[in-house]
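> forwarded from #structure-qc
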């Protein structure tokens, strides 16, 4: 077990218990911090958009082309924008910090 640090859309901070092998989207959704993940992780909806803290961007696996193409469809992107369904939690990313972007 480890932790994902999240700032939700209201600005509140949460330290969520993370589970090895789960998608970050699933962890955020199941903790009820305002994550939809409508397509269930199929990289088809972008409702799992998160902004990874600057310090963490280079510590995550590179996004696949499929993820980058879906991110390009969003109206607003930031340097740390990722689809959280495409990030699998492991102890290597214990302490991952991210923010849920405002909906536009
Ligand atoms: S849950 Fe749909 S793209 Fe991530």
């Amino acid at each position: 077990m480890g932790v994902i640090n999240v700032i939700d859309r209201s600005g509140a901070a949460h330290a969520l218990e993370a589970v090895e092998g789960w998608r970050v989207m699933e962890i955020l959704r199941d903790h009820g911090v305002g994550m939809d993940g409508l397509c269930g992780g199929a990289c088809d909806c972008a409702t799992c958009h998160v902004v990874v803290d600057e310090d963490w961007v280079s510590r995550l696996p590179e996004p696949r082309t499929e993820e980058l193409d879906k991110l390009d469809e969003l109206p607003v992107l930031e340097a740390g924008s990722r689809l959280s369904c495409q990030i699998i939690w492991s102890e290597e990313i214990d302490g991952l910090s991210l923010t849920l972007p405002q909906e536009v």
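QC bot note: Helices lie at 24-30, 54-57, 65-71. The chain has a mean pLDDT of 96.
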